[in-house]
Design a protein that fits this description.
The structure holds two protein chains of two kinds. By secondary structure, chain A is an alpha/beta fold. Chain A has 14 helices and 15 strands. In chain A, helix 2 crosses helix 10 and helix 8 runs parallel beside helix 10 (286-316). Chain A starts with a helix and ends in a 14-residue tail after the last helix. In chain B, strand 18 (469-472) and strand 19 (477-480) form a beta hairpin. Classes of the chains: A alpha/beta, B alpha/beta. Chains A and B meet through helix 14 of A and helix 15 of B.
């Protein structure tokens, strides 16, 4: 543990963003490997779906605590990541969509890597950590790779040119970087090219993360690795598609919207529309749905293989006992359930996301917990695990106590929000504030004046997904009043019970 | 080289003036012992603008809050007039004195008690009281309590009630509505006029001036002019959550049933909104009178050397937890506005969220007036919080109602323990309405243990009630009735 003194000396030595001489490394400090996965929903063996092949994440799960009820603060990349990286909620960061940077409203905010960097860590990022093209120089000791977090042209392989190259030089093995790719625009929703893993971005991200781990470490490191898959398009080397029998893939059962839910609760699956093989409106045909799920699974397995390479490098370097590993999907995803595809709703499938945490020495290795946690908890958790003093004003709490006692009483609710219209960003008309308690989900759609336009209440003990909106029923009036009051009290009102003194 | 003009002669004059002032015991100069304006209202909720209530409109209380320290988590020692006021003025808990209700005179039960005004008198102060400071029925202001007392002028009617339906008992006070009077023509106006005259007078001693307004106590009569700006929907009827008492233990339910008949009588006539509106108008009236007193102080020679304390004796239910009036151990009954403005000490606009009790006022005033306090006071001085409203504070507030029933209010939780051992726990961070009793939920054992540690060990037997005595108002003495007489 570093402790407060080391933290203070780290601050004194950091001397601003451009400083090349951070404080001396605190002896025995924990490293951090921070793995962000784009659009990964808890559709994994450790979350009860053995159909998905993710042996590497499964391996990590066996030495981690698996959080069964982890909730993002907004089910879209930009706000979710801005929130979790600053430890502040979307109404504080004022990042409600993918266009804003948290430094627009909070120029002096401290991100997780920035905090570690100020403490004397070397901080590096490969792949998509913040959303899109957002670099954040104060956060990183070296520039993010690829610049802007996503390389144009790595979403699709140019299969025509590749075929021509292969015809010209039969028998030659092409390196990943030699594989031709296409300029980014929405094309088909899936692609299964026969290429090595590092023809695509996630493979190259893993290459570089492994290189970073192989370097000698004079100071403790905070290594952020951002995998892009299983984000659309579902491009993955063919062998990952071949892991699945398309006929064995199960489609969403009863893919209809919850009864009595307001229109605001949904999207028209906007993100999926525009791919050339997807109809502009209406239902996704069954055959296409099967293909999409197949693609999502294949992309997940491809990403899992890259996670495995990073974890292997941690072990090969003998760093397992000194490295905290946090892996999460930035939010959930709909695969046709409730008539929805993709994300950007407040529904359980979008708000809930996978979260695995390994801290060397923890008791609950390989256990799962149904305690409610939120992504804003990452910041205080990582600080706690590494003995670093977190900045003041964070809007989450450390999950570290759960690592030894995963059944202890914890948060009473998680809070997630999403603006309307779809991707309205700063120009929203309605904000949907949603709260997940142990037994239900309660959502209010509020206009700019604070008036409630619609409410949703779902019993999630009766069914794991939302099926019937109970908010307007007389017999639920008292429950709605209680939940509305709790929603207004906000996250501060749902913190774990206090311990230690009369607070 | 430029020489600055010397200030020495001025300093010397100021020092002389101070010396002279202190030698003469003059109460007008900053250097002398401070005066105290002890300003209270009756049955007034936390419905104050400065505490976030947007319908009561209390610009004068708000302006006092803006110049002193507003305590946002202040609580009455007991949710009823007499036990609350006796605790505040004696500095002793109801569980120590045994004064749990309105039917117990303090004097014959606590013959040796030195109450706050008397203690100040004995320490060089001139103690003047007006309106309702101690409980307002005869027998609560025995000789020696005050140098000067201006009795409460009430607005009670004996006929021409504004509300046509009556409750069986307490006929005169169960009434509300506008009356054709100006604010200063009401009973409390007389008290305020007396206070204005007091502040205009010369005083050769530092003074303790207690101005006790009766508003907004039942009957909720208000000057018609005050009600004009208050529409029928301006004051919301508080939420009576269906089934709210389902998780409340029996003693709590009994407390909540004490005025159920009144609540249901009012509700059955569709008058809940009307009585809430009348109560709100009474708060506005009280605020106007508070403003008059503050204006008089500000234009007096005592403005810069007078501590102002503003408080209400407890809160009031209008249907919350299916209850009417006071007499419960919940937030609605105990949470009160409290402002302390101490010239030279409090920063303007200070807000303090630490839990405090009005029982702390006695020791606080002793501290601020630099007087020694009687030995047995059970509150503590709030001076540290006046100096730094956000400093750490490990002490919760205690409130008591009836024998052995206590509530402990910390910054986050309210813990209630009834005499039979049954408990309630509310997390105010999540549940400001106290709708969900967490006692018995797993994970709260430590929280309960820590709060229960503050429950007083001593629970005095109830003091002798009025029926045990014969009160002689002319001599202001009491004789114990024989058992036979009592029957």
């Amino acid at each position: 543990m570093i402790g407060r003194r080391a933290f203070l000396s780290g601050l004194a030595g950091a001397g601003g963003f451009g400083s090349r001489s951070p404080a001396a490394p605190p002896a025995g400090a924990m490293n951090v490997v921070f793995i962000a996965v784009d659009d990964l929903r808890p559709e994994l063996p450790c979350y009860g779906n053995p159909a998905v092949k993710a042996p590497n994440i499964e391996r990590l799960a066996r030495r981690s605590l698996v959080f069964e009820r982890a909730y993002c603060q907004s089910a879209v990349c930009g706000p979710s990541r801005a929130s979790l990286l600053t430890g502040l909620r979307p109404d504080t960061t004022r990042v409600w969509g993918n266009r804003a940077h948290f430094r627009d409203a909070l120029p002096d905010a401290v991100s997780i890597p920035q905090c570690f960097r100020q403490t004397g860590y070397r901080t590096e990022a490969y792949g998509k950590v913040l959303h899109g093209k957002m670099a954040d120089p104060p956060s990183w000791s070296v520039p993010v790779w690829p610049e802007g977090g996503r390389q144009a042209g790595m979403q699709y392989v140019d299969e025509e040119r590749l075929a021509a190259m292969r015809a010209e030089a039969p028998g030659r093995e092409w390196e990943g970087r030699d594989i031709p790719t296409l300029e980014w625009t929405k094309r088909s929703s899936s692609q299964a090219p026969d290429v090595p893993d590092n023809a695509l971005q996630d493979g190259q991200v893993a290459d570089r993360a492994v290189q970073a781990l192989r370097r000698s470490h004079r100071e403790p490191f905070f290594l952020a690795v951002g995998f892009q898959k299983p984000h659309l398009p579902f491009t993955a080397p063919r062998r990952y598609f071949d892991l699945y029998d398309p006929n064995a893939i199960k489609l969403a059962k009863d893919p209809v919207r919850p009864a009595g839910a307001p229109e605001l609760a949904f999207t028209r699956s906007n993100e999926l529309r525009g791919y050339t093989d997807i109809p502009d409106e209406g239902r996704i045909p069954e055959a296409k749905a099967r293909e999409l799920i197949h693609g999502y699974y294949a992309a997940t397995s491809y990403m899992d293989a890259q996670v495995g390479r990073v974890l292997d490098a941690v072990r090969a370097q003998g760093l397992e006992d000194s490295t905290v590993v946090l892996l999460f999907g930035d939010h959930g995803w709909h695969l046709g359930e409730q008539g929805q595809w993709a994300k950007t709703t407040n529904l359980e499938l979008d708000a809930r996301a996978p979260l695995l945490l390994h801290v060397p020495g923890m008791q609950a290795r390989g256990a799962a917990t149904d305690r409610i946690v939120e992504f804003v908890d990452f910041f205080p958790t990582l600080c706690d695990a590494c003995g670093i003093e977190p900045p003041e004003g964070l809007e989450g709490v450390s999950m570290v106590p759960l690592l030894d006692d995963p059944g202890r009483p914890w948060k009473r609710a998680a809070f997630t929000q999403i603006p309307r219209p779809y991707l309205a960003d700063q120009d929203w008309t309605y904000m949907g504030y949603s709260m997940r308690t142990a037994g239900c989900r309660y959502t209010e759609w509020v206009d700019r004046k604070g008036d409630v336009a619609a409410r949703e209440l779902y019993d999630l003990e009766a069914a794991p997904l939302e099926t019937v909106n109970l908010a307007d029923r007389d017999e639920h009036r008292a429950q709605v009043l209680r939940l509305a009051s709790q929603l207004r009290a906000g996250w501060r009102g749902s913190l774990p019970p206090s311990q230690g003194r009369v607070p | 080289m430029i020489r600055l003009p010397t200030r020495r002669p001025f300093v010397a004059i100021a020092v002389l003036a101070c010396l002279a002032a202190s030698l003469l015991g003059c109460a007008t100069e900053d250097s002398g012992p401070p005066n105290v304006l002890f300003l209270s209202v009756d049955d007034m909720n936390d419905w104050v603008g400065a505490l976030g209530c947007d319908w009561a409109r209390t610009p004068n209380i708000d302006r006092l809050a803006a110049r002193g320290t507003l305590f946002t988590n202040a609580h009455a020692p007991s949710p009823k007039c007499n036990p609350s006021r006796t605790a505040i003025l004696s500095g002793l808990r109801p569980s120590t004195t045994g004064i749990y209700g309105n039917g117990e005179w303090w004097k014959p039960n606590l013959p040796d008690a030195v109450m706050l005004p008397r203690h100040l008198r004995e320490n060089g102060y001139y103690a003047a009281g007006g309106g309702k400071v101690f409980h307002h029925t005869p027998g609560f202001n025995p000789p020696g309590s005050w140098d000067e007392y201006f009795d409460l002028v009430d607005d009670l009617r004996t006929e021409d009630f504004l509300i046509p339906y009556r409750r069986p008992n307490n006929i005169s006070s169960f009434d509300w509505g506008p009356v054709a009077k100006e604010p200063m023509e009401m009973g409390d106006g007389a008290t305020v006029r007396w206070a204005e005259d007091f502040l205009a007078r010369d005083h050769d001693k530092p003074f303790f001036l207690a101005v006790g307004l009766f508003q907004p106590h039942l009957p909720f009569y208000f000057p018609a002019r005050i009600g004009e700006g208050l529409g029928p929907d301006d004051a919301p009827v508080p939420l009576d959550l269906p089934g709210d008492l389902d998780d409340v233990p029996e003693p709590g339910r009994r407390m909540a049933a004490s005025r159920r008949d009144d609540l249901e009588l009012i509700a059955s006539h569709g008058d809940l909104a009307d009585i809430v509106r009348a109560y709100t108008a009474c708060i506005r009236h009280a605020d106007l009178l508070v403003g008059r007193v503050l204006d008089s102080l500000d234009s007096s020679r005592y403005a810069s050397n007078t501590i102002v304390v503003f408080w209400s004796d407890h809160g009031y239910h209008f249907g919350e937890k299916h209850h009417f009036a006071k007499d419960t151990l919940w937030e609605r009954s105990s949470h009160v506005p409290l402002v302390i403005s101490a010239p030279g000490l409090t920063e303007p606009g200070g807000r303090c969220a630490r839990p405090v009790s009005l029982i702390d006022l006695f020791p606080t005033l002793m501290d601020l007036c630099r007087l020694s306090a009687p030995d047995r006071l059970e509150g503590v001085s709030l001076r540290p919080l006046l100096e730094d409203p956000s400093r750490a504070w490990s002490r919760p507030a205690l409130m008591t109602f009836g024998y052995g029933n206590h509530a402990i209010r910390s910054e986050r939780y309210r813990y209630i323990r009834y005499a039979n051992g049954e408990e309630e726990l509310y997390d105010h961070a999540a549940d400001p309405n106290e709708w969900t009793n967490l006692a018995g939920d797993p994970g709260y054992e430590t929280v309960i243990e820590e709060h229960a540690a503050w429950v007083p060990a001593l629970n005095a037997e109830g003091a002798l009630r009025k029926s045990a005595f014969r009160f002689h108002p002319t001599t202001y003495t009491w004789t114990l009735r024989s058992d036979e007489e009592r029957r």
